[in-house]
Amino acid sequence: MISRMLVATDRSDTASRAVQWAAEMSGACAADLLVLQVVAPEHLTAQGGDSTTQAAADDLATFTRQVCGERGRPLLVYDSDPADAIVRVCEQERVDLVVVGNVGMRDRTEFLLGSVPNRVSHNARCSVVIVNTALNGAGAAPRKAARDGAGAAPRKAARDGAGAAPRKIAQDGAEPSEAQLLGRAAHVAQVFARYGLRDVLHRTPDDAAGRARAFRGALEELGPTFAKLGQILSTRPDLLPAAVVAELADLQDHVAPLTEAEVVAVMETELKVPWEDVFESIEPDPLASGTIAQVHRATLVGGERVVVKVQRPTAETEITEDLGLLRRFAEKAANRPAFQQVVDVPAVIDHLSSSLVRELDFRHEAASIERMREVLAPFGRLSVPDVNTDLSTRRLLVLQEIQGTPLLEAPEGEARREAARQLVEAYYQQVLAAGFFHADPHPGNLMWWNDTIYLLDLGMVGEVDAGLRESLLLLLLAFWREDTSFLAEAMLGLATGPPPADFDQDAFADELASLMATYRHVSLKELRLGPLLQQLTEISVRHRVRLPSSLALIGKAFGQMQLAAAELDPSIDPFSVAGSFYLRQLAGSMRAAVNPAQLFYEGQKLRARATRLLEGLERTLGVRGGTGLQVDFSGARELTAAIGDAGRRIAVGLAAATAIVGTAVTASAAHSAAWATAVFGTAAVLLTGGLLIDVFRRR
């Protein structure tokens, strides 16, 4: 039953229509009607204080009697936030139904800045009616009654208190309880047992393919955390058998799509407004449905076509729970020598955790898209979709719809060949220059539109530090120039530590030479950079040279990119492209070097450093005042004394030897003075005696 109603008005013509509708509704329901007008305090000050306040109150009272009769009661409130004031008064007056007009409802810009009707409809705890004040007179109808879409349900014209509960879908990412972890651990064990998995890491050939398929199936069933773990493990051929790595490379997450109600709930929670006020339409069938998100085509109110990525309501909770379980496992494994010899489990779990946390916040993907746009700026045939930053949030990503065709359906011609070359070179640019690359460039994530390749889905990206970039470039150049010895040096430069003591560099170089001979003289259609880098990793594993784990991810990305480029133009030589890229990079560096401003800056840095070096040297030599160079050896007193004794004995010994030689020379000379022989002889006896006494006394 509705016994008390409230209608808000700003005394505009459109708001007056909402008051008229509410008056008719209150009469039909025999309900009391509160007519609320919210005035900003700054407006009151500008108009002249108390007299204005009384005049506004009298005017509202007159209007209420005229439109609402005896049932109406006026209420004038001063507040800078009209929506907040309306919601607060509804609570204070225990209103059953609040009525507002729909001014600004179809204006997306105004609406997102804080449309009063939408904010009231989302925050009031009572039922809300939004009146379509575009209709004239008392015939104004509640918004949604005029919507004639087939089967389109009214959007909670009556918003009851219970309707607020679903808005708490978003989880807070709190750590799971012990009971939750134990329950999840039991479920994981059941899934692995059902798939018959006991020793996935077993490298014997007995049914390796069958175990790999079972492992993949178990990870897919266990959800997003384990699916992501499988993707990480697929880039580690040094840890897993080849069959498992190959199987995990195609791992997919199979989940039932979200219902339309679930999609709408997430959208409206993130946008804080009804979805219809942002989107003209949303296609009900998803483009893709994964364990973290679901993607739909949609059209904005202004007619712009977009795709919308919506996070699953339970994704954060499920991933947080699984990460908690895996962290417990990592804590146990960290102290087990058997695990330590094979893999750094805590490091793998930390990497998994950071990757998933980034994927759960779509703002990271939006930032990656903009960063990739900068990297691809020199390549006219490559691009990424535009991001609608006004509508995107941590759980909602709105992107430009790329309305082209799959990459492999690109029409033949010069644009296609040029795009293929740019795609290969852009990957060198991403990995070797920018240190930021698309880590999942399979053909499904590449679209052809307006003679341009668009890179989609930057949820998975990789980063390469400067040292690794330099070593990778040297490796590719060594392949290009067929320099086996330099290739071996480049591989050792990539290593994360020194080679073992029994490392056989000749055997290592021989294996690399065999690999180079296999790959160098083949076309791009036949050459596979991904398997090439994987084989380099396997050679390194056999020789116990540890390469960075990111090398496998780079190899996988290069391999996927190359599959696409080879379909566009099979004649491209990727190493030739690498050489051209290197020459352009060198030319760019030289141009930067001759830049007058840069030269002046570098010169000033060099002058400052040279000045500091000379000052330090002068202080060390005592020429300049200040603290000189001081070297203190702690715990070396005995060593210092021994060195002093040895120096003294050497000096005495040399003097004694000189005296002996002098004695012999003067004694044998025909014309030497007699006293000279006596002096040299006496000195020789004394010095030799003193040296012998010192040696025996110290023992």
Explain what the structure shows:
- Helix 4 packs parallel to helix 6 (116-123) and helix 8 (208-222) runs antiparallel to helix 9 (224-233).
- It is built from 25 helices and 17 strands.
- The model is unreliable at 104-114 and 136-173 (pLDDT under 50).
- The N and C termini lie far apart (113 Å).
- The chain has 699 residues and is an alpha/beta fold.
- Strand 1 (4-9), helix 1 (13-29) and strand 2 form a beta-alpha-beta unit.
- The chain is elongated, with a radius of gyration of 40 Å.
- Helix content is 55%, strand content 11%.
- Strands 3-2-1-4-5-6 form a six-stranded mixed sheet, sandwiched between helices. Strands 7, 8, 9, 10 and 12 form a five-stranded antiparallel sheet that branches. A four-stranded mixed sheet has the order 11-16-15-13.
Radius of gyration: 40 Å
Count of distinct strands: 17
- Report the sheet-strand fraction: 5-15%
Low-confidence stretches: 104-114, 136-173
CA-based shape: elongated
The percent range for helix content is: 55-70%
Distance between the termini: 113 Å
Structural class: alpha/beta
Number of helices: 25
How are strands sequenced across the largest beta sheet? 3-2-1-4-5-6
If you average the pLDDT, what whole number results? 76
Q: Which sheet architecture does the biggest sheet show?
A: 6 strands, mixed
